[in-house]
Amino acid sequence: MFFSSNPERPDGLLHHIFYLTQELTKLGHSVYIFGPNRKSALPFKNYKKIINLVEIPFLKEATIFITVKSKKFNDPVKTIEGQEKFDIIHIHDPYLPLIAWEILKKAKAPIITTFHTAWDENSGFNIIKSFIPLFQDYFTKVSGSIFVSKIGKKIWGTLLPAKVKKIVINNGVYSNLFYPLENKNKKITLLFVARIVPRKGLMILLKTLKELIKDVSNIKLIVLGDGPHLITCKEYVKNNQLENFVEFKGYITGKNKIKYYQNSDIFCAPYRNENFAITILEAMSCGIPIVGFDSNGVKEILSGYPDSDLIVPYKNIKLFKEAIKSLVLDDSKRKRIRKWLLAKREKYSWEKIAKKTEEFYYRVLSRGRVTRPVH
């Protein structure tokens, strides 16, 4: 597998690769991972550093990662093909320049791509659609493509030739790690987990909280994450006397992060331009009622949600406040939603996601079991 993201700060894409490779290994496959020359916060096995990484801010809300060759390493395509005789080369977010494009053009093994990014219809990111046709030539050798959501397939499917096999395979979650516990909170605890950038909506949540505490004061908000918008959010909390209601915990991973989920009562997902958020799956697996905005990715995960009033129009602070308030004041509502979430979580087990991915590999190769390593 090849990726172009920053392994020092794992995002949903890197967690996807980490969990997927674990499960593919359990299924008997040899998996090698190739990526940037940076220390990985996740304990990848068979991780090979073969490129340098350049980060460029984009639209004040995101970062574009550009991978480039390094004098320290040999040619990346030759390095990959010299490692093993791979059955498959699997590129994650293949639209990211520049090395992914080179692999798409030069690699000899069958190529599968996974698209992890998507955005809403009214988003500024739609400017990208105008440029998608310019890159179609890079994808002529792709054999199969995976999209982690339906909206992702709608956006990126036009990039691919008609002959390319396409499938939606969602992100997953480990229910044996993310499971519910009965907490004994004296205050109703709200949880926010995300990188602190504008599109993740923490500032909107803080403004909502400011209004919410006028009606209910027995609450607190836990914020997990860091990012370029963090200082602005902390200043807002201080300037609006919210220090007694908000706790910033920073970037938390592993068992400590799971504990925060298990000790929370309501998960707040004020996200925009979301594809298929692993954080929402983690909240679901812990049985935490979810309230958020009607981003396509959020609606797709929570399709059939028993209380549709908890998913409100983007930036509508009044409705967002009322949605959170309804959960704060109604314990029976929280229990009813928890039951629904726990019944749905098994659909997204990483074991099932890996088996679907394996089946797609076989389908692309048009034969039975893969015997050589998967990259």
TrEMBL record:
InterPro entries: Glyco_trans_1 (IPR001296), Glyco_trans_4-like_N (IPR028098), Glycosyltransferase_grp1 (IPR050194). Residues 12-173 form the Glycosyltransferase subfamily 4-like N-terminal domain. Keywords: Transferase. One of its GO terms (molecular function) is glycosyltransferase activity. It comes from the Bacteria. Residues 182-339 form the Glycosyl transferase family domain. Pfam families: Glyco_transf_4, Glycos_transf_1. This is Glycosyl transferase, group 1 family protein.
